[in-house]
Write a structure and sequence with these properties.
- By secondary structure, the chain is mainly beta.
- The protein has helices at about 50, 150-155; strands at about 1-5, 10-15, 40-45, 55-60, 65-70, 75-85, 95-100, 100-105, 115-120, 125-130, 135, 145, 160-170, 175-180, 185-195, 200-205.
- It is about 5% helix and about 45% strand.
- Strands 9-4-3-6-13-8-10-11-12 form a nine-stranded antiparallel sheet. A five-stranded antiparallel sheet has the order 5-16-15-14-7, with no helix packed on it.
């Protein structure tokens, strides 16, 4: 996920999106344990679609997976989204990962954080984890501020909180995995982006 400003509007680069001119991803069953609290996301980086009010990210629930070749815009991201329960009990996000995985917090103060579908923007608060475990918020009422886990627990106590654990592509082939989030085993979920060298990138999340 990353913060962008296009035509004066703020959009979050968030979730599972594919250009209509490319093949539809193959949906498959994910290996190992699954949960109704688990979702998948992918962002293909085509932010111009947002200005056109066309969907550019999508949220899929639990056992969905992606295998797709998309246009290479020099940016993409993909990851799992785990429901961590009420924000009032939030103490941070601890994930067992391999590779250069990133961690973000999503707040359920908007329906897009938990409702499967295709979107042209994001209506919820989210932030990027910092080295000290705090989160730099890039949307919502706290945009531009860094919040501790305790502050999130207090300020968003009436909402659900979600942990995003994923991989950011920036033009170079990359891969990683995540196997548990806050002590909950989710199987060995792998994420990869392969630069095909011909203007496309192959994205996979299982």
């Amino acid at each position: 996920m990353r913060k962008i400003r296009y035509a004066g509007n703020l959009f979050g680069a968030l979730a599972l999106a594919l250009m209509a001119s490319f093949a539809v991803p193959t949906v498959a069953s994910a290996a190992s344990t699954t949960s109704n609290s688990l979702s998948y996301e992918f962002d293909n980086g085509n932010f111009s679609l947002a200005a056109q009010q066309s969907w550019y990210w999508e949220l899929q629930k639990n056992t969905a997976a992606i295998n797709a070749t998309i246009h290479d815009y020099g940016y993409a991201d993909a990851g799992i989204v785990m429901d961590l329960g009420s924000a009032s009990t939030f103490t941070g996000i601890n994930a067992v990962t391999s590779g250069p995985m990133s961690i973000n917090v999503w707040i359920g103060d908007g329906t897009d954080a938990s409702t499967p579908g295709q979107y042209a923007s994001a209506n919820f608060s989210y932030g990027f984890e910092q080295p000290n475990g705090s989160f730099y918020m890039t949307s919502g009422n706290y945009e531009g501020q860094t919040l501790t886990a305790a502050q999130i627990a207090t300020d968003f106590s009436n909402f659900e909180v979600y942990g995003w654990v994923g991989l950011v592509y920036s033009g170079v082939s990359i891969s990683g995995s995540v196997s548990s989030v806050n002590g909950q085993f989710i199987g060995h979920r792998t994420v990869s982006f392969i630069n095909d060298g011909n203007g496309t990138v192959t994205a996979a999340l299982h």
